[in-house]
Amino acid sequence: MTAATTDSEILAIARDRVLEQGIGLSQQQVLDVLRLGDEHVTDLLALAHDVRMRWCGPEVEVEGIVSVKTGGCPEDCHFCSQSGLFPTPVRAAWLDIPGMVKAAEETAATGATEFCIVAAVRGPDKRLMSQVREGIKAIRDSGNDIQIACSLGMLTQEQVDELVEMGVHRYNHNLETARSHFPEVVTTHTWEERWETLRMVREAGMEVCCGGIIGMGETDEQRAEFAVQLGELAPHEVPMNFLIPQQGTPYEHYETVEGKDALRVVAAFRLAMPRTMLRFAGGRELTLGDLGAEQGMLGGVNAIIVGNYLTNLGRPAQADLDMLGDLKMPIKALSETL
Q1: Are 332 and 114 in contact (CB under 8 A)?
Q2: Pairing of strands 93-94, 114-119
């Protein structure tokens, strides 16, 4: 924010550019929004909600996730309890095919339209690809037509093509944080390697799901940088995670993001990406606390993960479904292409 620009003017500029024209904010404009005073948060959330309703509509996509391979990952992502390089309580484990089918059935029973198969790996090997293939076949053979996404780390072109052939319609691979901050978060691979996987996924015709984690020591400037970098990628969906400090990781003593800051970030990301699906993901319960997820759903969010996360408990799925009902937000129907 320049000395000549007031908070009210920042909101007015955002209203004209994003709500009226449908153009995402620039990096400096996102930074200005992130620096708005607490007294303007309510107006900011209202604007973000108006943007979401105008450019995305009222529907909410509900998703469940399951970990097919937990723990033992060779990478050193400093936030992650599944890294085999840190002394965390998480131990390596595989989920069998009946477990995958059961998880998909339970997810579909909540009314969710999306089921994501996740693995803690640098990238999938032949065993994991085979497990995913068999799991998807078993889910389909059970009569479950829920949309299936995957998050299996960095891919080769051959693996991208194989996932397309399996019928995977969306691939999640988070950039995690701004390019300038990434070397502070991960040292065993690069931001550019992640970007390359996302490029191949997009070119293969799968939907791109890419977000990150807020609260890993990044500055407001880097949050603004990250929002704009995601906007340049133009993912179909952006999961919004907030750091849950994990025992044994380098970030175990980090403080959680304050609720108002979390809501400010959600709204700023909506104003940077007016047409993108923003999904509440890990850490929202811990970060928002008494503020509740409702404020985020009325502040730009239009998708949500229900139930538990990979190594952390979430809210009961019914609690989130009840919330959506109270807010009169319809759950997105399954794609007609299925």
Answers
A1: no
A2: unpaired
DSSP code, position 335: P
**Radius of gyration from C-alpha coordinates of the chain:** 19
Tokens in use for 20? 């009226």
**CB-based contact 100:135 (threshold 8 Å):** yes
Count of CB atoms within 10 A of residue 219's CB?
A: 13
Q: Which of 186, 197, 219, 237 lies closest to 83, judged by CA?
A: 186
Q: Report which residue type is found at 250.
A: P
- The model's pLDDT over 9-21, given as tens digits with 9 standing for 90+, comes to 999 999 999 999 9
Residue 316 Cα distances to 14, 64, 285, 308, 331, angstroms: 36, 12, 11, 8, 17
DSSP state of 44: H
23: its two tokens: 């153009």
- DSSP character for 16? I
Q: Strand, coil or helix: what is 20?
A: helix
Residue ranges of E strands in the chain? 61-70, 93-94, 114-119, 147-151, 170-172, 207-209, 212-214, 237-242, 277-280, 303-305
Q: Do residues 318 and 334 make contact, with C-beta atoms less than 8 angstroms apart?
A: no
Residue 336 CB neighbours (<10 A)? 5
Convert the pLDDT of each residue in 227-260 to its tens digit: 999 999 999 999 999 999 999 999 999 999 999 9
Amino acid 87 reads: P
pTM of the model as a whole: 0.91
With contact defined as beta carbons under 8 Å apart, do 135 and 97 qualify? yes
Cα dihedral sign for 332, 49, 279, 156?
positive
Interhelix angle 220-233/259-272, nearest 10 degrees: 40
Q: How far is CA 305 from the centre of its chain?
A: 9
- 113/101 Cα distance (integer angstroms): 15
Q: Which two tokens stand for residue 321?
A: 């479904």
Structure tokens at 118: 């996740």
36 within 8 A of 7, measured Cβ to Cβ? yes
Question: Could you give the CA distance from residue 263 to residue 300 in angstroms, rounded to a whole number?
Answer: 9
